[in-house]
Write a structure and sequence with these properties.
Layout (H helix, E strand, L loop, with lengths): L4 E5 L4 H20 L6 E10 L5 H6 L11 H27 L5 E10 L1 H11 L4 E5 L14 H9 L4 E4 L1
Parallel strand pairs: 1-2, 1-4, 2-3, 4-5
Length: 166
């Protein structure tokens, strides 16, 4: 198997941090063992999850209001943009951390929607050789022993190799 692209779903949880560290370790080992010294791409993919908003929920949140009566869509867009900005900053820090490791190119992508579906679609529509994913994410502890609902759904739907990390 020619391993050149590793997808790491990333949500800044302990489990996704472990998955990223494992992917970097694996990519470094593959690069060092490759006589052609081909670069391994690691793609960190964060999915901003769709959340159903209600006026009551949004009123409880402390959101900067330029418009005195913003619509639910405007609130959702503000939250999406702030989440995207914070996650991009975090992923940029990770890229700087691993930048000096020879043979690895770390990239980041941010999508919006259902995390499991977006991870599945991304892996199916892009050249991904391996998925390295945390067993649980920020959604809380797994309802199934050892696997969160997103990692379980992804593992059942993808046709490429996958490693699930605790």
């Amino acid at each position: 198997m020619d391993l050149r692209v590793i997808l790491v779903p990333y949500d800044n949880s302990h489990y996704s941090e472990n998955a990223l560290e494992y992917a970097v370790y694996l990519a470094k080992a593959i690069f060092l063992g490759d006589p052609k010294k081909r670069i391994i791409r690691i793609v960190m993919l964060h999915v901003v999850q769709e959340i159903p908003f209600t006026k009551t929920l949004l009123d409880k949140m402390k959101i900067k209001r330029e418009n005195k009566n913003p619509s639910l869509n405007e609130h959702a867009n503000i939250i999406y943009q702030e989440t995207k900005t914070l996650m991009q900053k975090d992923m940029d820090k990770k890229k700087k951390t691993y930048k000096s490791i020879e043979g690895i190119k770390l990239e980041s992508r941010i999508l919006y929607g259902d995390p499991a579906n977006q991870i599945i679609d991304y892996s199916n529509n892009n050249r991904v050789d391996l998925i390295v994913m945390g067993s649980n994410g920020l959604q809380g502890l797994a309802k199934f022993k050892g696997l969160g609902s997103v990692s379980r759904k992804v593992s059942e739907a993808v046709s490429r190799p996958m490693t699930i990390i605790r």
